[in-house]
Amino acid sequence: MFADVVDYSEWRTGRRATGVVYATLFFALKAGLSLGGAIAGWLLAFYGYQANVEQTQRALLGIRLTVSIYPAILLAIVVICLLFYKIGKRLNIQIAEELAERRKKFA
After folding, report:
1. C-alpha 16: how far from its chain's center?
2. Cβ pair 49, 59 in contact under 8 A
3. What letters, b where the CB count within 10 A reaches 16 and e where it falls short, cover 20-41?
4. pTM of the prediction?
5. Alpha carbons 32 and 27: distance in angstroms, whole number
6. Do residues 11 and 98 touch, judged by C-beta distance below 8 A?
């Protein structure tokens, strides 16, 4: 999908911004992974998790929710976002053909 976004950007603007697109996407990926890890820790702390001790029922519930329900909710949000992703196979082929034609003119 990263390469599709780069091609889409070039197709729309006429300028290839590969570095900017990849830098932005990788920054967002790293920020998301960092934030996800922090949120998991905060959730466990909220439910009273303590390392190396027998866990309370509330802490066990928090562990179960943190590894099942909460990620499922976030996955559902991502799936909904992907429904609005407009670069499908047909558009990708159209973009590739039009970019190839543009590049032939400059070669």
Report:
1. 22
2. yes
3. ebeeeeeeeeeeeeeeeeeeee
4. 0.75
5. 8
6. yes
CB-CB neighbours of 47 under 10 Å:
19
- For the chain, 107 residues long, give each residue's pLDDT as a single digit of tens: 889 999 999 999 999 999 999 999 999 999 999 999 999 999 999 999 999 999 999 999 999 999 999 999 999 999 999 999 999 999 999 999 999 999 998 87
Show Cβ contacts of residue 46 under 8 Å, excluding neighbours closer than 6 positions. Answer: 62
DSSP string, 43-62: HHHHTT--TTSPPPHHHHHH
